[in-house]
From TrEMBL:
It holds the Pfam family OEP. It comes from Desulfofustis limnaeus. InterPro entries: MdtP/NodT-like, OMP_efflux. This is RND transporter. Its main location: membrane. It is found in: Cell membrane. Keywords: Lipoprotein, Membrane, Palmitate, Signal, Transmembrane, Transmembrane beta strand. It comes from the Bacteria. Belongs to the outer membrane factor (OMF) (TC 1.B.17) family. It is a lipid-anchor.
Length: 476
């Protein structure tokens, strides 16, 4: 009885201490404010940020991508993998119970000393065995802590994939609509140049213009004509990219609103630095740091002995039918203390490796934070400068349109050559294409801003956000 009390006391002590350092968030050097600031552009609504475009086609594409994108499915499978590993790790903290069934037929043969021949006999056994490693130094606790942190890191990885995916689908769709608009401009310009070429061919036929002027007009037409297949190629490639993001084979993509109908995303008047704390990549890096920190304790616990309890309870009989009726019972209870004496640096090497991995995790955590600040600053300055550039280009288009009109008037009056008209029209055509690209850049910069903050000024329970926050198998 005294020994049983001692074993129970040891079991109660198990897990009371844990080797290695407890986790503390490292101090990081972060700026006091953003380098660039933006005036408020409305206030975000209650729905998911991409629904501010009010384009059902875009919303449908994003919903499809969330459900079928291969990267998302891979990230979800990794969550399930780490959940299974955590379940395996956690199980080691509890007694492991097994069973054994056996039967043996034996004949000892003739005894040479007594001259007797013992009859053959059968032995049937059934028993339960129990093994339990007492976690006196917290090795199993640290292993479970590391496994749990890895599960949480994998959940943040999946959320990061989703945040990136939604942003990529929205940005790719807007770029596609930008190419559509550029193709429309190129085709309209080609038709205009084609009409000019027709008129100039008639004038050249009647001798009112020279062959030089005709070739200038024909060259202008071919410039617009060769732009069309280039943009059509970009459109097809962009459709293929979007198809892959949707988890489909390359194919056509449906269209919704025109580019000029897609408004700039609203954003709040203030963007607090604390929003970055909810970025999935930062949270993932911290969970990985937690796991690396816990593995230090798991390695340090190897310096101490392991204490294990084992037990066996069963019955045996000469016949299977008598096993649980008249068979004899047997039991055993024991304990084992095992440890390392001389490992020639084996344990200390594992500890040093775990500590080095933890230092690497700290550096990755700090790098992730720095990269997050860079992404936000880039998105802020990109949005600010794209808006300024767009306004300047719109004024340029107005001036070039008037310049083209006046050049045609002076040419028709015979006071200037057609070279001036060519210059005006080519510059206007190029500026119109550039204006579309700048509009695309402005829209995608605001998407980058939402993506940099993971849309975290949107309520997590907002319609459309549920898919971004769900994880593998739910609660841990």
């Amino acid at each position: 009885m005294k020994h049983l009390h001692l074993l129970l006391l040891i079991a109660a002590m198990a897990g009371c201490t844990a080797a290695g350092p407890d986790y503390r968030r490292p101090q990081t050097d972060i700026p006091a404010a953003w380098r660039s600031t933006l005036p408020a552009q409305g206030e975000p609504g209650p729905n998911a940020w991409w629904q501010s475009y009010a384009d059902p086609v875009l919303s449908g594409l994003i919903d499809q991508a969330i459900a079928t994108n291969r990267d998302v499915l891979l990230a979800t499978a990794r969550i399930d993998q780490y959940l299974a590993l955590m379940a395996t790790s956690r199980s080691r903290s509890f007694p492991q119970i097994g069973y054994a069934l056996g039967a043996n037929r034996q004949d000892t043969g003739l005894n040479p000393l007594s001259g007797t021949d013992s009859p053959a006999y059968t032995t049937v056994q059934a028993g339960l065995n129990v093994a339990w490693e007492l976690d006196l130094w917290g090795r199993l606790h640290r292993a479970d802590e590391a496994a749990r942190a890895q599960v949480l890191a994998s959940e943040e990885e999946r959320r990061g994939v989703l945040v990136s995916l939604v942003g990529n689908v929205a940005a790719s769709y807007i770029l596609l609509r930008g190419y559509d608009r550029q193709l429309q401009i190129a085709r309209e310009t080609k038709r205009s140049y084609e009409e000019t070429r027709r008129i100039f061919r008639l004038r050249h036929h009647h001798g009112t213009i020279s062959g030089v002027e005709l070739k200038q007009v024909e060259s202008q037409y071919e410039q617009a004509a060769q732009t069309i297949p280039r943009i059509e190629s970009l459109i097809t490639q962009q459709e293929h990219l979007l198809s892959i993001l949707l988890g489909e084979n390359p194919g056509p993509i449906p269209r919704g609103k025109q580019l000029h109908d897609l408004d700039v995303l609203p954003f709040p008047a203030a963007l607090p630095l604390s929003l970055l704390e909810r970025r999935p990549d930062i949270r993932r890096a911290e969970y990985e740091l937690m796991a690396a920190n816990a593995r230090i304790g798991e390695a340090k616990a190897l310096y101490f002995p392991t204490i294990s309890l084992s037990g066996l309870l069963g019955r045996q009989s000469g016949e299977l039918t008598d096993l649980f009726r008249s068979g004899a019972g047997f039991w055993s209870l024991g304990g084992t203390v095992a440890g390392s004496l001389i490992t020639f640096g084996g344990v200390s090497g594992q500890v040093a490796q775990a500590e080095a991995l933890a230092r690497q995790a700290v550096l990755r955590y700090e790098q992730t934070i720095q990269a997050a600040f860079r992404e936000v600053e880039d998105a802020l300055v990109g949005t600010l400068k794209s808006r300024e550039q767009l306004q300047a280009q719109q004024r340029q288009i107005e001036s070039l349109t008037e310049y083209t009109r006046l050049s045609r008037l002076t040419f028709e009056s015979g006071t200037t050559s057609y070279l001036q008209v060519l210059d005006a029209e080519r510059t206007l055509f190029s500026a119109q294409l550039d204006l579309v690209q700048t509009h695309v850049n402005l829209l995608t910069s605001t998407i980058d801003l939402y993506r940099a903050f993971a849309g975290d000024w949107v309520k997590p329970d907002a319609p459309g956000m549920k898919g971004l926050l769900e994880t593998g198998q739910g609660n841990l």
